[in-house]
């Protein structure tokens, strides 16, 4: 079963409070999401493997550590996932970025892929799918399917806020995908919003509505 990691670093929790506040405007919302994405990138990369290398410092030879293992890929789900990309790239600038766009079919209400552009070597990368909100889990599940269908082998999911319903759906459908959150909220309401949540992440990021 996939693990759920709630990243409870005090800076993440403090900034998330301001992200949630209804009175936070677009500029501050965007900056805070960017900052939290950087902090979450720090936490989500905590377990990356290291290897030893020999180097020369100005003083002596030394055995030092560098990242080993798989390269990273960041996969925002359009459009709200875009708000977390730059924050992550601050810490992992060599990561490649792929995009998955989904829309909701008005009849089936299921997410349908309309745009997918990925790094050519996704099967060799550790992929981090990002979307600020994990609500019903429909989009995250579809995005992960879309990556697996194209050869992805190692995937993590990173969201700001999740509803328990969404977490359960992803865990059921993709038990190999660990989930990283800044907060696990109470529930979904009848309109599909996370409660207490932060409203519509895409609208708040881009100033639409
Ligand atoms: N998507 C959002 O942007 N907000 C929610 O609360 C749920 C889904």
TrEMBL record:
<protein>
    <recommendedName>
        <fullName>Uracil phosphoribosyltransferase</fullName>
        <ecNumber>2.4.2.9</ecNumber>
    </recommendedName>
</protein>
<dbReference type="InterPro" id="IPR034332">
    <property type="entry name" value="Upp_B"/>
</dbReference>
<dbReference type="GO" id="GO:0004845">
    <property type="term" value="F:uracil phosphoribosyltransferase activity"/>
</dbReference>
<feature type="binding site">
    <location>
        <position position="104"/>
    </location>
    <ligand>
        <name>5-phospho-alpha-D-ribose 1-diphosphate</name>
    </ligand>
</feature>
<keyword id="KW-0808">Transferase</keyword>
<feature type="binding site">
    <location>
        <begin position="131"/>
        <end position="139"/>
    </location>
    <ligand>
        <name>5-phospho-alpha-D-ribose 1-diphosphate</name>
    </ligand>
</feature>
<dbReference type="Pfam" id="PF14681">
    <property type="entry name" value="UPRTase"/>
</dbReference>
<keyword id="KW-0460">Magnesium</keyword>
<dbReference type="InterPro" id="IPR029057">
    <property type="entry name" value="PRTase-like"/>
</dbReference>
<keyword id="KW-0342">GTP-binding</keyword>
<dbReference type="InterPro" id="IPR005765">
    <property type="entry name" value="UPRT"/>
</dbReference>
<feature type="domain" description="Phosphoribosyltransferase">
    <location>
        <begin position="6"/>
        <end position="208"/>
    </location>
</feature>
<keyword id="KW-0328">Glycosyltransferase</keyword>
<dbReference type="InterPro" id="IPR000836">
    <property type="entry name" value="PRTase_dom"/>
</dbReference>
<keyword id="KW-0021">Allosteric enzyme</keyword>
<keyword id="KW-0547">Nucleotide-binding</keyword>
<dbReference type="InterPro" id="IPR050054">
    <property type="entry name" value="UPRTase/APRTase"/>
</dbReference>
<feature type="binding site">
    <location>
        <begin position="199"/>
        <end position="201"/>
    </location>
    <ligand>
        <name>uracil</name>
    </ligand>
</feature>
<feature type="binding site">
    <location>
        <position position="194"/>
    </location>
    <ligand>
        <name>uracil</name>
    </ligand>
</feature>
<feature type="binding site">
    <location>
        <position position="79"/>
    </location>
    <ligand>
        <name>5-phospho-alpha-D-ribose 1-diphosphate</name>
    </ligand>
</feature>
<comment type="similarity">
    <text>Belongs to the UPRTase family.</text>
</comment>
<feature type="binding site">
    <location>
        <position position="200"/>
    </location>
    <ligand>
        <name>5-phospho-alpha-D-ribose 1-diphosphate</name>
    </ligand>
</feature>
<comment type="function">
    <text>Catalyzes the conversion of uracil and 5-phospho-alpha-D-ribose 1-diphosphate (PRPP) to UMP and diphosphate.</text>
</comment>
<comment type="pathway">
    <text>Pyrimidine metabolism; UMP biosynthesis via salvage pathway; UMP from uracil: step 1/1.</text>
</comment>
């Amino acid at each position: 079963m996939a693990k759920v990691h709630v990243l409870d670093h005090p800076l993440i929790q403090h900034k998330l409070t301001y992200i949630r506040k209804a009175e936070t405007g677009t500029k501050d919302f965007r900056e805070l999401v960017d900052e939290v994405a950087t902090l979450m990138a720090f936490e989500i990369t905590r377990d990356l493997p290291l290897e030893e290398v020999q180097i020369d410092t100005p003083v002596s030879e030394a055995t030092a550590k560098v990242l080993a293992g798989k390269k990273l890929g960041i996969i925002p789900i359009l459009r709200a996932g875009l708000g977390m990309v730059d924050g992550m790239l601050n810490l992992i600038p060599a990561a490649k970025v792929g995009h998955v766009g989904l829309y909701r079919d008005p009849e089936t209400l299921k997410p349908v892929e309309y745009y997918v552009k990925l790094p050519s070597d996704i099967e060799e990368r550790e992929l981090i799918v990002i979307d600020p909100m994990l609500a019903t889990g429909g989009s995250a599940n579809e995005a992960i399917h879309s990556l697996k269908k194209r050869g992805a082998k190692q995937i993590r999911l990173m969201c700001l806020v999740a509803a328990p319903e969404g977490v359960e759906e992803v865990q059921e459908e993709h038990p190999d995908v660990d989930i990283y959150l800044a907060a696990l909220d109470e529930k979904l309401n009848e309109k599909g919003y996370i409660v207490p949540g932060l409203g519509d992440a895409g609208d708040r990021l881009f100033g639409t509505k």
